[in-house]
Specification:
Layout (H helix, E strand, L loop, with lengths): L5 H11 L3 H10 L4 H10 L15 E9 L2 E9 L2 H4 L2 H17 L3 H6 L1 E2 L2 E2 H12 L3 E10 L3 E8 L6 E2 L1 E8 L4 H18 L11 H17 L4 H19 L16 H12 L4 E9 L11 H9 L5
Antiparallel strand pairs: 1-2, 1-7, 2-5, 3-4, 6-8, 8-9
Helix pairs in contact: 1-2, 1-3, 1-12, 2-3, 3-9, 5-7, 8-11, 9-10
Amino acid sequence: MAQITAQMVKELRDSTGAGMMDCKAALGETSGDFEAAVDWLRKKGLSKAAKKADRVAAEGLVGVTTKGTKGVVVEVNSETDFVARNDLFQGLVKMIANVALDVGADVEKIKAAKTGSKTIAEDIAETIAKIGENMTLRRAAELSVGQGVIGSYLHNSIIDGLGKIGVIVALESPGKTDELLPLGRQIAMHVASANPQAVDSAGLDPAVIEREKNVLAEKYKAEGKPANIIEKIVDSGIKTFFKEVCLVEQPFIFDESNKKSVAQALKEAEAKVGGPIKVKGFVRYVLGEGVEKHGTDFAAEVAAAVGTSKN
C-alpha cells in the first residue's frame, strides 16, 4: 500500500476543498492516486473539484492590453499586496503587457525584449532593487483574429489595464467593430464570472468528458440504479455538465431571465453587428491561481491528521 504523506493530503484538500480526514481516506482507498482520489471524493459527494473554486492566491497584478485584432494578458507576481499599489510595479506590469503585445506570449522572449537600452528582465531586476521585494513574470497569453475584435475585461481593477482577474475573448466577425467591441466586453465579463473550461464541448479534453461519465455512472451504480437507467442519467448529466463548463452553452449573465445561452445571445447580436459572430477563444487569468503562498502552519495540522511528522 502506498504511503500517504501530509503533503499529499494537503494538495488534495487544496484542490477539492474536502475535509482532511476525507482526503486521507480517499488517498488510502486509491493507493495514493491523486486523480482517482478526487473522483472518489466526488462520488461520495464530498467534493466539487471540477469547479476548482478554492485556489490559493498569490500577490501582484494581472495586466491586459488589446490593439485591433490582437490582445494579451500577463501575470506578474510579487510577495505582498502592498506592492500591487506601488506606481513603479504598476508601470512595470503595464510595460510588460505592451511588450507582450509586440513580441508574443513566450515568457522568455518577453524577458529578452528591450525597452530602450534595457531588457524586460533587467527592468524587473531594477524594480526589485528599488522596491526591495521579489517579483516574477509568471505567465502570458495572446489571442488574435483575422477580422473581428478582442474583447477584454479586468475585475478588481487597480488602474486602467491592471487588476486581479483578467480576461480576453476573441470574436471573429466581418461585422461592425464599434458594435462588436461592447459585445466582446460583455462576453469577457461573462467569462470572468462563469469561469468556463472551453468555448464548446469540442474544446474539452475527451478524457475530461470520459472521467465525468465514469463519475456519474459510479455514483448512480452505488445507489443501485439499473444499467439502462444509469445510461440515460449519464447522457442527461453530461449535457448538464456541458452547460456548466462550455462558454457558448452557459446561461448568459446579462440575460435577466437566465434562459438565454451565450450562443443565443451571439446569434441575436448578429443582425445588429451585420455579420456572423464566432468565439474563437478566450483566456482567463486569476491572480495567483494555483500558486501557494506562505500562511498559517497548515502542514502541521495535516501531519497530525495523517499521523506523520511535519519534518
